[in-house]
Amino acid sequence: MEIFLGAFTTEWEQRKAAFLHDLTLGRRTLPEEDERRRGGSVPSAVSTETPKSGFRVRTGRQRRADRPMRARFVGLAAGSQPAIVKMASFGGGSRLGAMINYVARNGAVVVENERGDQLRGRDQLSTVGDEWDHLMKNRAESRDIGLFRISVAGGGPADDERFNRARKIVTHGLGDRAFVFSVTDRADGSGFEIDGVTVLRNSGGERLTADNAAAAIVQTRMERAETGTKFQFMGYGNGTDYGTSQVRSLVTAHKGQVQDEQERVIADAKQAGDLVQLEWRDQLHSRKPRDVMHLVLSARAGTDTDAFHNAARDFLGQQFAGHRYVFSLHDAQSDPKAEAAGGKRPHVHVHAIIAMQSDAGDRVETTIAAFRQWRLTMAEKARAYGINMEMTDRRDRASAPAYSRNQVRPVNTIGRTQHKGTSSAAERRYHAKRDDQPNYSATTRSQAYMQKAREQWCELQHSQALVAQHNFIQSQTVRLADPRTKGWIRETVRNEAGNSDSQFRTHSVKLTEIVSEGDDMRHMTRPEFDAYEKRVETALFQAEKTMSPEERRDFDDIAHAARELVNVRREIVELLEVGGTDHRSSGADGPQDDKRHWIDAVERHGFEAADAANKTLLDIERTREAIERIATEKPEEVPALKKELDTHITKAAELGASGNGIIREVAEIDGDLKAALQSLERDRQKREYENSSARVQSNEAANSNRGLPQGEQKQTRPDDRDAQGRKNPGDTASRDEPGNTTKSDPAKQHDPRLEEIQRVTRERNEGNHDERER
């Protein structure tokens, strides 16, 4: 059977078809398979033998060169989002079903596999396990924690002495292993029981299996020092999670009467968790099977969902060719899981469950270099679909290291998830990452990389093409200025006054970054806003401590402006909490206030922009009221009115896309208008991307025309000018469209009283509108 690659619309489908076709025909040679398993590449000139198939599958995993640092930094300065590819977890074959059900929300979310098949419902999802069964090694996880009980015959001394005696008995049996235990007297007074939890691996590497054979070994060791004892294992488990739960259960059952091998009392759940997480973790040498991995691809809130879905599909198809995988997309609108339960995250993200071993025997490489390559590929695929995204390195901006899921636990899932560290060190690491604190690497290689990155940022700082991004670029150079040099350490005390200026600049830049966090204000909840306000006040306090007296006046102006902006954003959050109906009912304070708000809008945006915005918004409001009014009386007229409403919203979105500041502010609180505006902006970005590709092709054509006769070159130029002439009038019209307030409108100003402006204009025009209807 012959297949035609042209029948597939995307590159990943072509590669999949070629791969499966070659597998079915057995056209892979043993040398190629051996080279693939060794991670090498097969040169095209290895053999002079003509291949039997017209297509070649990718047999090696050569890494492409990174995107130039300067190009990445230009993209970041222009507002591109970083490519986020996170490893959530690994699992064995026994966990495959649970992991797939998680990403599919128990069948409520559509899941797609590597062949492009869409799986719906739990019945179709259950077939994945059978298809992947030959790839699952089902290796057993290590036994790390054991539960034991020791029965001691005979009466016992007082409580303290009984604990000491019990500790000696356990130590004789378990050796230098860490453990906790509690003592319980028998009801008949014939002896007592020792219940405990222990680490199964000792310092020499010997691991007890927590079965009858291991219990016999421990029993023999105890009898050498204590007669009348009987040892038995009650259970075992893997990892710190199991250990923490068992130690806490022991503490709860014995009401805090628990001690460890060092005579320390473990009285509550926090002490139990700290003991296992901080002290036992390194002793476990825990091992879990890695048959499948859970990968998460994330994007900012507001990213085009369909474009990101397509980019993720292409990324998985290229990066994991030959592997089995399934993936699904979650966003705030389509996720059926409740926000309080951890669902409906404010950002769009894709979950992928990938088999670690391919059908050809290759295993997925999960090194640091591999993750860098994944981010590079993800950013490339996203840009192809009009999403501005760049691969980033932590050293590009001196960012703090990430925290793992074992170092934090979620405490609030409303909005952006808030965590709490499992220890003081984990808490510091969490806040360093969450607050985006600078972090300077200690290795020579990383310091050289960061020095190169700072040089690139400094070059961009003097670029005339990036004047608008000057503050952002300057903040990066400040972050990458590593103060941890020997000279700086020696001169810290002596030059404290001189360093305060640099510290003030650093805190000022930090304040600018915090205040500018309003891009996602439409998604900010009350807890997030409270944290945002606290960060602003903290940054103001730190900057004020390090400023010089002559800078006090300017700082007061900056602090006043920052607090004013926080107050405006507080009003937006309150508006979102109250809702549109309550806001409309509370806005009619009087004609004088309405007139003042109208004048304020005209002063900020100009009469032409305010009038154009209000006319469009009034049309939207009237149409919505008409839909509500006749929804029950004349439902057959609702579709026509909804179509009219879509027309008005599209018109308003076009006005906002052309730069009208009032429309953009209203879009922050109007979901339909916001969606239409974002759709227009995405279409514009896609057209710009296509135009840039067309320009590249045009340049290549021009270069090829240099070798043609002069007459032929002249014949092509009038057509090019005609095409440009047909294109330019539309561009000119969009630039000259009335209502453009881009130049005069301060960036990201939010005024929650805009609906009051709309209301006064609506009331002023009510009479004329009624006359026209009559």
From TrEMBL:
Lineage top rank: taxon: Bacteria
Listed Polar residues bias regions: 415-425, 438-447, 691-707
Biased composition (Basic and acidic residues): 426-437, 714-738, 745-774
Region (Disordered): 30-62, 415-447, 683-774
Segments crossing the lipid bilayer: none
Protein name from the UniProt record: Conjugal transfer protein TraA
Biological source species: Phyllobacterium endophyticum
